[in-house]
Amino acid sequence: MTELLSDYLGSKWQAGSGAGTALFDPVLGDELVRVDATGLDLPAGFAFAREQGGAALRALTYRQRAALLADVVKVLQANRDAYYEIATANSGTVKNDSAVDIDGGIFTLGTYAKLGDTLGDRHYLPDGEAARLGKDPLFQSQHVLVPTRGVALFINAFNFPGWGLWEKAAPALLAGVPVIVKPATATAWLTQRMVRDVVEAGVLPTGALSVICGSSAGLLDQLQPFDVVSFTGSADTAAVIRSHPAIAERSVRVNIEADSINSAVLLSQAGPDTAAFDLLVKEVVREMTVKSGQKCTAIRRVFVPDALYGQAAEAIGARLSKVTVGNPRNDAVRMGALVSRAQFDAVTEGLATLRQHAQVLHDGTRQPLIDADPAVACCIGPTLLGASDADAAAAVHDTEVFGPVATLLPYRDTTHALALVRRGQGSLVASLYGSDAAALAAAAVELAGSHGRVHVISPDVAQLHTGHGNVMPQSLHGGPGRAGGGEELGGLRALHFYHRRSAIQASTGVLGTLA
Asked: Of 167, 213, 283, 296, which one is the catalytic site residue?
């Protein structure tokens, strides 16, 4: 039997008592490792993290906790090669796609280490200026943010086992809140290995970081009023979490990132021979193929003026035809696999649903694989669909296929285009392409209310922009409505989720001694 990965909870490594769930290589079909959380003493583990790990973190200043993050960065950098091997085997990603997950997570940690250093040697954060409560200025009110005295439970998605951990853990640990992460089972190996390396290096206080691999059964039951939970995954699971007594009755704070049908829009001023047109085509293809389209921020709908529909379809299809798919160990392969047979089946079924409402403009499902057996490998080529009547294509605006699939849609004018974008009912990100600064700015503001992020790409930033789907720690990640209503990152804004706000009413002398 393959190795059973240990969980780390309550200051010790411990194996589940069951046979475990197997993790597979999605290209070769080989069983890699097993994970299991059966029989773990969850109440004791959560209590240890909450009481021991939390107390140790809160005893440190923000600057000291920032230094801990910098130490974690050094540990992860020293083990990068092992992480790349795991990502190739367990996620089926080519090297560049693995970098988005692994190096992206390390970069985010490093960013928060630097941000935390600017907060200085204090144990609370002032929230605004002190306010006078009467005519005499001696008695005032100062709002403060203090670390919540609980644990942060992360229930993460399968597509980013590295970055998904650290983009949440970095602000939590900097805030002074211990972390328990439950990675998605299919790709839990990378998360477990990263946590193992950090724990064994001894750079964090005991209890500050724990990992539970396997079933999530019973985890939400452990949550107490001052704990927080952050979830990334499906809207169906998010609904179950929101209805759990911990959230509904004990007021546990929850952050949700769920489904998102993201859009890319070419403004009408940009013709087929313009730099903006080329930028749209390039970005659509990149977002369809990076991590095989398994990104919550990937482009799912592409809007172009009616007159450019055929030319856009031809240009995007031409680029997609050059994308090689198969075994990520082969240097000739540009796009690897979906992470599991379950995801392969889900994408296949979702694509079949969309094909009932749209025509196939570029069919990647018939594309030959490189160095991979199509009967075994969870690989599928990128597929571009098209619907000539964007208003009637309701399924396209409501269905997210979590893979290398996007749909091209025509619009009449800018007002029509933005209305179609908003039919996504709230998304993580929309990107705009054009060269008219005023038109781009106006459209960005119009879409801001229904998107967590609006990424504007004009020719002057062609070599500078960070990418439609790249989540940068300085910018907000999250979105309203269908996207879950959550907020992560955004620089120091991320720390607010892990703090409690209180108003201290006192004399100016007392307020001046707050530490």
From this structure: 296
